Amino acid sequence: MSQQNKDSGLIAKGRDFLRSNRWRDRFGGLSDQMKGMKFPSIQKDYPKDADLIDLVPPEDFTVGKAPLLDVINKRRSRRKFSAEAFSLEELSYLLWTTQGVKQVLQGGYASLRTVPSAGARHAFETYIVVKNVQGLKPGLYRYLGVEHKLLPLKLNEADLFNKTAAACCDQPFVAEAAVTFIWTTIPYRCEWRYRDLSHKVIAIDVGHICQNLYLAAEAIGAGVCAVAAYFQDEMDKLIGVNGNDEFVVYVAPAGKIPSP
Q1: What's the burial of 98, exposed, middle or buried (CB within 10 Å: 0-12/13-18/19+)?
Q2: What is the pLDDT of residue 163?
Q3: Rounded-to-integer distance, Cα 228 and Cα 248, Å
Q4: Per-residue b/e over 161-177, b at no fewer than 16 CB within 10 Å?
Q5: Which of 10-19, 33-42, 231-240 has the lowest mean pLDDT?
């Protein structure tokens, strides 16, 4: 087969992935939900003796009050960040507006969050590489949306920021971000209900998350540049996931906007 034919085949498969014809035959088989199998957890487990870091609760936010139309008009991808740190409240606000849990339903069957998700499956975990946040040590953390707390994973690791940029196809601006958001998917949370139709809606849902980050960042004088160009194996290894049951799907460096 010629390279041109191979490329055409890959393009055709990609287009099939985006189409929604499969909804007509209702999955083509029984999902695990239909089989009566227990629903997956809405949040990945963590050690119960872990020293969690409290975040500012959403009812106490004083930031992010800009009018929505102003925020939408200013929104753009930004690849230049100042050296100004985020406050802990600003980081709390960005985490809450992207994956905050407003309600847990039916004993953990599903969750209602600050972003939409097909079937309320929310098949994501949020990791952050912190470089410059007041009161936080530099390092890798995971956001626990149910508790609205941070779980420290790797602190003061040498060259973490440059490693993150290298894993993002050597894009240097990534290393300059105050915080880099890294979203993984745990596909089974969605596959339990939607089988192989899950993967299109996972791709859609992570876009909802990142758009909230763009708008929330602009509302506090910060900027974001979403990154889909990254080396899968390197990024998965960086945050310590196995690349199969959980793997990175999107990256978004964020930082304060430099003065004109």
Answers
A1: buried
A2: 97
A3: 10
A4: bebbbbbbeebebbbbb
A5: 10-19
Q: pLDDT tens digits, residue range 131-167?
A: 999 999 999 999 999 999 999 999 988 899 999 999 9
Q: CATH classification of 27-256 is 3.40.109.10, yes or no?
A: yes
pLDDT category of residue 27 using cuts at 50, 70 and 90: low
Residues with Cβ within 8 Å of 87's Cβ and at least 6 positions away in sequence, in order, are 63, 133, 134
- 130: which 2 tokens? 């912190």
Domain ranges of the chain: 27-256
Q: Residues 148, 45: contact at Cβ < 8 Å? A: no
- The H or E element spanning position 8 is helix 3-18
- Between CA 208 and CA 97 the distance in angstroms is 11
